What does this fold into?
Amino acid sequence: MSASDSLRAALSTDLDTLREAGQYRWLRHFDSLQEPVTRVDGREVVLLSSSNYLGLARHPRLVAAAREATARHGTASGSSRLIAGNHPLYEELEEALALFVGAESALVFATGYLANVGMIPAIAGEGDVIFSDALAHASLVDGCRLSRARTEVFRHNDPQTLEAALRANAEARRKLVLVDGVYSMDGDLSPLPDLLAVCEREGAWLLLDDSHGTGVLGERGRGTAEHFGLAGRVPIQMGTLGKSLGSFGAWVAGPRELRETLINRARGFIFTCALPPAALASSLAALRVLEDEPEHRARLWENTRHLREGLRSLGYDLGGSETHILPVFIADASQVMPFCEALLDAGVFAQGIRPPSVPEGASRLRVCAMATHAKDQLDRALEAFDRVGRRMGIIS
It folds into this structure.
């Protein structure tokens, strides 16, 4: 058997195992990205699975900024930032992001995943202890593994459990606590004031991954810390540019010494190509749109309330969601993907989420409105949830 045939046979066995476990994934075809109504696998549908929450990915000011930056600077940065890719737009964006969240400095990464798996090993290692919320994002989990620090997992959103764990590890050289601002699969909020108070009492550093809170929460869209009146208080914040801000990339904000440490030690920063000028320019434009046009945020919350009330009135379980992310829990995990496909046939795309992305017994559809949805589009989606759910016996 050739090496290629051996590889094919081994991977085919692995794929069969995934299929048997109901965990096989595939890529869908989208004719047009980030529109409230689009075509998925050849069918016109109301899109309820985008993280383009404010609809900024097609905002004229972002498109114009990207177009102008490309015409002026080209399509690529052509290098890592430490070699020849540190475009002036980077410095302008990082200054704007630091001001945005009330931090001393910020550093832009290529993706949120690279930010977390680069940052955590850069500031914690052997002899340190990391305390991770049980539902922390996969990138935070992977950052823990790469750090070689000991990791303690505390009960989800439970400050008392965290405090007990911190006190039991008081001798640790460094103590780093990892939480999400908005949990991306459940839509619940971190109890940030209580967690921060515990960290301050016990001498721990709090790292807040605010990928799904940035742009959405707070009076001015500055995220979970602003929502709780804690702007400038959280030691380390991370957020993405490719969700509510409608662009691409991620950022870490904190003390100036944190930025310098990441430049020198974060492998996810050092060994990757710099972002293209278009992404930097559109991110800057998005920050200005957030400031100038608060109506996008208002429309998102209005659409979210309409969708939440409609789904609950139909009898769907949305768990403890407090935000724009609405998990529609399905008791029978084997129905999740058939329900997703039946909704697709009925003109709605809401992606089914199964283990290992969520814990066993917690399969769901992840439903999100966008600011750009019209009320009649959401009503159309609710009618499909009603019709398909009753036909499949998911609701009665």
